[in-house]
From TrEMBL:
Segments forming domain DAGKc: 1-117
Name under which the protein is recorded: DAGKc domain-containing protein
Database matches in InterPro entries: ATP-NAD_kinase_N, Diacylglycerol_kinase_cat_dom, NAD/diacylglycerol_kinase_sf, YegS/DAGK_C
Organism per entry: Jatrophihabitans telluris
Lineage: Bacteria, Bacillati, Actinomycetota, Actinomycetes, Jatrophihabitantales
Length: 280
């Protein structure tokens, strides 16, 4: 199942690659407005391998149906951002196709949030807006200063939420949850050394204290955020976050839903088999 318009035309290149390298494969081009998960569920009963081509949102849909149906996933990079395939080590689609020919798969974890799967990250509150602001400034200011400016801007615009995180009260507008432990520490996580540690990476900024935004910005500028009492980073197998009043946005691998007030996170260790060449 390939989105031919993904990645500024990379999807169309994937279709040509598949038809040339795996001529016996059934290639389905996803039409505009189609429900990818519904279409994958429709074809899964006759599949031996479930293949998807696109970006991280496409990978999440493929992983969802692959886990449901017990099929291995052929993940073909074809989006703008390809965090999952990069971390697995198959950012080159030919490496994934070679793995199919050899029959080699690895088992990776998938995260769950309110019953839905994610392969990379999830967040609540204004974290997606913070990331967009930070990435827009990085090329001019560098990562530390861009992160500091983005925190100040985001916290100035947003009203912090009162949260209960596993029963403990915090005040925050920025909460990040990763499927597996991310590197580096701090509020610019970008890659994972492994995808099978069975843990979630929980990070949040607690802004319920005096001058919190300024203190966090100074910690980011000096590279000492992980030592700040306002920054929380934990590795957990599960967590429950309750919004004390109202609701919040919930992001999952780039897909956003609204009006969530009780959010339960978990991990399905080794639930997804992905084709990947043996490690060197």
């Amino acid at each position: 199942m390939i989105n031919p318009k993904s990645g500024s035309g990379r999807g169309a290149e994937l279709i040509e690659l598949l038809r040339r390298e795996l001529p016996d494969a059934e290639v389905v081009e996803l039409e505009d407005g189609s429900d990818l998960i519904a279409q994958l569920r429709r074809v899964a009963p006759r599949a031996r391998v479930l293949a998807v081509g696109g970006g991280d949102g496409t990978m999440t849909a493929g992983a969802t149906v692959a886990v449901e149906s017990g099929l291995p996933l052929l993940a073909l990079t074809g989006g703008t951002f390809n965090h999952f395939t990069t971390d697995v080590g198959i950012e080159d689609p030919m490496r994934a196709i070679e793995a199919v020919r050899s029959g080699h798969t690895i088992a990776v974890d998938v995260g769950t949030v309110n019953g839905q799967l994610f392969v990379n990250t999830s967040s609540i509150g204004s974290y997606p807006a913070f990331v967009a602001t930070r990435e827009g400034l990085e090329h001019r200011l560098g990562k530390p200063l861009a992160a500091a400016v983005s925190v100040v801007r985001t916290l100035a615009r947003e009203v912090p939420m009162t949260l209960l995180v596993d029963g403990r009260r915090h005040s925050s507008a920025l909460v990040f949850v990763g499927n597996g432990g991310y590197q580096p520490t701090g509020f610019a996580p970008s890659w994972r050394p492994r995808l099978d540690d069975g843990l979630l990476d929980l990070r949040l900024l607690d802004v319920g204290r005096r001058w919190a935004a300024l203190r966090i910005a100074m910690s980011l500028l000096t590279g000492r955020l992980e030592r700040s009492p306002l920054y929380i980073e934990q590795r957990v197998a599960s967590t429950e976050i309750v919004i004390v009043e109202g609701s919040t946005l919930l992001a999952r691998d780039g897909e956003v839903s609204e009006d969530e007030s009780r959010i339960r996170y978990g991990v399905m260790p080794g639930a997804l088999r992905v084709f990947c060449p043996p490690a060197d």
